[in-house]
Structures are given as C-alpha cells and as structure tokens.
Amino acid sequence: MLQDVDELDQFRITVQHLESCRDLILEGGEARYRASLILLDHVSEVILYRIINEEYEQDDMLRKVIPEKYPPKLRNQIKHSFPSKLEVVTKTHKLPVIVSKTLTILHNYRNATYHRDKHNPIVLPVLARIALVATADLLSRTAAGFGNRGVGGGDSVEWLQPYGLGDSPIWFETVARTIADELKRGVRPRLATVKDAFAADVQTRIEAIRSMLGELFPSGCPKEIDRMLKRYEFRRQRPELESTLSQRFRALNYKIAAGHGDEVTREEYEAAETEFQTAYEKQFEIFKPSCRYTDLDTIDDQLTPLRNEKNFRAALGRYSRLDELLTSLEPSTYRCYVEMEWVAEMQADIARGK
C-alpha cells in the first residue's frame, strides 16, 4: 500500500511539472519559454531514468538464467547519456520515431539554452511548445514509467478530478493518455508556424554572422575567413594542446617570473618557444574543421526546402542540421570578433598614452 501511494505521488509530481510548463508557455515571454524548455527536458529524463531502473531490476533478477542485457559498462554509459537512455526506452516501449527524434533534438536545444543561456527569441516559443507535446507523448506512451499497474481502493484523488479522473481504481496507462491529450490541447503549433519560426531563426543568425565577418574582413576573402574559423574551432576543440605542447616553454616563463631570469639563456628560451609554436602549428594544419565560410551559402540555400517541408519531423530534422552548422560557426565568429575588438581598443589606448 505504501508503494502504491509513493508511485501515485511520483506520478503526480511528473504531471504537475508538465502542468507548470504548460502554464509558462501559455503565459508567454522569453524567460518562461526558456524555463519550460529546461524543465521539460528534466521531466523527460526523469521518466527515462525511472523506466531504465526497472529494466535493470528485471535484468538483475533474470541474469542468473539468461545473459544480462545491461552489463556494468553499458549501465555506466547509459547513466551519463540522454540519447542512450532514450535509445533503450525507444526499444522497450516502441516509441514512434517522431517522439524519440524530437526528444533528442530538443535535448540538444536544452543544452544550448541552459549552458549558453541564450537562444533566438524568435524560435523559443515554438521550441517550447514542441517540447511540451513531445514530453506529453512520452508520458502517454510510457505512463511516466508506471506501466502495467494501477492503484485503488482508497478515496478519490483530488488532483486528477480536473481531468475527469480520480475515482478508484486508477490505471496509470489510461490516466496518462487522458492527461497527455489535455496537456497538448491548444499548445501544439501549426506546421506553418513552426516552419516560419525555424526559417526566421536561421535567417537572423546567418545575417548576424555575416555582419560580424563583414566588419572583421572587409575584403570578404573566403580563404582568410576560413583560416580564422579553423583557428578558433581548433582552439575550442583541442584546448589541451596549448598546455601539453608548451610545458617546456612555460617552465622557462615561470622561472623568469619567479626572479630567476639569469638562469635562462636567450638561445634556450627562443628554442623552447619555437619548439612549442612549431608543434602547435603542425597540429593546427592537420586539423579538419567542421565549418567553412561557404557553409553560410549552403545554409541559406536550405531555407526554401525548410519552408516546403510537409510534416513536423522533416521540418524539425532539417532545422536541427542547420542549427548544428550555425552552432559551429557562431562561437568561432564571436570569439574572433571580441578578441579583435579588444586588440583595437588596446591599440587605441596605447595611442592615447594610456
């Protein structure tokens, strides 16, 4: 009986989180959309985690007679990976491709929203609505991890009454489907709205990148721009190289900074500096960048196909690929812009005698 109450309470918390997200979305506002997107990803992962724990319990019980499905190494990988959790639940609960694909894509957007603390306000309302629909679908198809069971024999459940439910017994799968349908009511965006928002997001981000690159490289030389993009992506993807390759050079700098410069010869210092720069540039030259200046034209060319997509999954998938390309271009462009602005300010200060 205690377990029944605990399961119903966990189910209630999951539903109330979704209700809160729905309220935030309907109230509107950039901060509310962002908060709902982050919370919906959390709710999805909690449901996935709950289901996987049951899979593990069953696996532990059966592994004495049949080979285990989830050995320790695989369990550890699943524990730290949202896509891995989703892959397991997609197989065990036969989730439709549209649900699993949408949740995967939106998890990536959640990371961008949470860690970068920014996303184009144009697209946030649509992303938040799609996320609620996808998470409600997950609730409906998995009963929030409480499938094939129910609770009953007690008083009616007050918090379920607004859904026309609440009388005993309560079968989780039936209740989950009814609640999910109600949560999605009036929230699911029209396909035309989705495509317009996606296209507007991509277009404004392309224009922002081109504007910054236009200031940095007035000549518009693709080779110069590509080398800059490669340089900053290399620094972002291989941050450990500078520290690893410069150990000898840095040791000499530390010695000089500590007041022992008389122990370092010019020849020794220049040799260490050259050794570091040569090794670093060698790694840079063999590095294969994921983005180029011409990718902006490629992305631009995809706007018409994006607007012409015939279903949500295709539109979301195409937008996801374009967003991934833009996400590679944006940090390199922005870092270069900031650093060159800083250099220009420093040179201006020097010229003024500061």
Detail the topology: elements first, then pairings.
Elements: H1 2-27, H2 30-62, H3 72-79, H4 82-92, H5 97-115, H6 124-142, E1 150-151, E2 170-171, H7 172-184, H8 191-216, H9 222-237, H10 239-245, H11 247-257, H12 266-286, H13 295-301, H14 303-307, H15 312-351
Antiparallel strand pairs: 1-2
Helix pairs in contact: 1-2, 1-6, 1-7, 2-4, 2-5, 2-6, 4-5, 5-6, 5-15, 6-7, 8-15, 9-15, 11-12
Tally of contiguous helical segments: 15
What's the story with the biggest beta sheet? Answer: 2 strands, antiparallel
Structural class: mainly alpha
The separation of the N and C termini measures 76 Å
* Domain tally: 3
Let me know the number of strands: 2
Low-confidence stretches: none
Spell the H/E element sequence.
HHHHHHEEHHHHHHHHH
> What is the gyration radius calculated from CA atoms?
27 Å
* Percent of residues in beta strands: under 5%
Provide a descriptive summary of the structure in words.
- With 354 residues, this protein is mainly alpha-helical.
- The protein has 3 domains: 2-189, no CATH class; 190-238 and 290-354; 240-286.
- Helix content is 74%, strand content 1%.
- It has 15 helices and 2 strands.
- The protein has helices spanning 2-27, 30-62, 72-79, 82-92, 97-115, 124-142, 172-184, 191-216, 222-237, 239-245, 247-257, 266-286, 295-301, 303-307, 312-351; strands at 150-151, 170-171.
- The chain has a two-stranded antiparallel sheet with strand order 1-2.
- Helix 2 (30-62) runs parallel beside helix 6 and helix 6 runs antiparallel to helix 7.
